[in-house]
Amino acid sequence: MNRASLRAAFFAALSILVAGGLVVGLLPNYWVYLITAVFILGIALQSLGIVTGRTGMISLCQMSFAGVGAWTVGYLNFIDFPGGLPLWLLLGGLAALPFGIIIGLPALRLRGINLAIVTLGFASAFDVVLATITYPGQTNFKMVARPAGMEGDVGYFMFVIMIYALIAVVLEFLNRSRLGASWLAVRHSERAAAAHGVSIPTTKLSAFAISAFIAGVAGGLFAGYLGTLVAENFSMMQSLTLFAVATMAGSQFTLGAIIGGVLVSLFPELLRRLNVPQDFGSVIFAAGAVQALSTGESISETFMRLGGKIVPKGLFKRAKAKTHKLPAAKTFAKDVPALQVQDVTVRYGNVVASNKVNLTVPHGKVVGLIGPNGAGKSTLVDAITGFLPDYEGDIRLGDKSLNGVSVTERARLGVRRTWQTTRIAPELQVGEYMRLAAGSDLSDDEVEAVLDWFNCPPANTPIASIDAGTRRLLDVAGIVAARPPVILLDEPAAGQSYAEAVRLGERIRQIPETFGSSVLLIEHDMDLVRSACEEVTVLDFGTVIAHGAPANVLETPIVQKAYLGVDHELEASA
Ligand SMILES: Nc1ncnc2c1ncn2[C@@H]1O[C@H](COP(=O)(O)OP(=O)(O)OP(=O)(O)O)[C@@H](O)[C@H]1O
Q: Which domain holds residue 474?
């Protein structure tokens, strides 16, 4: 639990409670009653923010999860179950949780429109079931009992606001944890997330489960709010409206959830006062969602962007007075090489992209892998990291064969990679990305030290605010901070200036000694290869054509011809 999470959670709770205090102190009871619905819907919207806003999976059945929670609370009230509403809410959330997991299972395979159809199907089925079984207490008007001392509208508002603050605080911690960063990483690139050792099934199912739990709590609060419920409160249409508003407002942010809650609960009231048909609200929400999707910016993101413009320049500076200490280098058994690629062949149909390639990365060394475009370098990196599992031959990490081992498991065992184009989720802060890439066992100080070492911006910098070249450096910093046995760097100098590339070359050369990891460097920048690598392997048309010290290998005619396009025989005869 780091200081930033504590600070953010404290501010979230404080601002919600202050807002609640102002509502109670300044507004008449009628408005307090209406605003209670804002916060209940805000909780439902936050639940959607996890699964759709953060993890990128479409859920069109969120109000069905809420309906499960509401039904459970209604039933517990009906049978006079002891514990009262606080306990019933918890049980309502827990009842919704397995539904979240069941709906999450197809999400492991399905995406986009297909997942939308599955979740809509669940919402539709839930409608039918509810119409049949009805809500407990609906026919004999047994109202859900509110907590003792909070039976009135103001009291119930205070109860709701405390639950809202509690959920907002828990979500602040979750969102800033490695799990929260994994949700964003999966949304941005499942491949890159897996390459960080993130389990994609666990990440997706946890998002659906936690989201369903929170929606179930929101449903239970609705039961206490309205006293008695009908099936229409949680219909498929309500789920669709919630989805449109979540997209429009950006419900993955606390601010967006409140804005969304205001829109869903107060907009109809406004339309009623203006004598406009209430269905018009759905049209506005749909148009707002289309607008947010087409511009890529929700209402809360617009507010935050505009707010960011008034943040004083230089806010994201590393404290100069502190001396940051790099994490200790890791040690690995040195009796076998760190990585061995043995006779690896990869075919794409008739194209042999990698042809019986042999390559060794000894412990404590930086080895270069070069070759012209299309030589098969990325193919080899994909085979080593598990993205192309159908290779022939053997790939060994230390004394362990990686054949048949998944991408996530290879990453966890210690084969880590960067990408030619950066795949860091821009919604993260630099420090959050470092914890996703390097694990949670680094101290704040060690994270800052690694960032400083690579000339990256400080941990509290939003990634959206840094340029592509620096993001690539951050990619390298995150993997290096993890200190795995083997690091594969795929063209890390792309996008760097000459001076930056020289500095990066120095740093890459120092990685084995400073952090304990061995490095396979794929690069087109020959100066960088010369400065960083002790050995270099040259590929051409998927075949190794040379291997040795860079000074020797880069001067051989076969390499000059294949890689640099210089044909010495032609030059001599000219
Ligand atoms: N998914 C694919 N399907 C079919 N052929 C592919 C695929 N990916 C790569 N190839 C082919 O395999 C060969 C090796 O490509 P690869 O991307 O590994 O080369 P590279 O050395 O990494 O090139 P670059 O330096 O441009 O990244 C090329 O002939 C390429 O066209």
A: 424-481
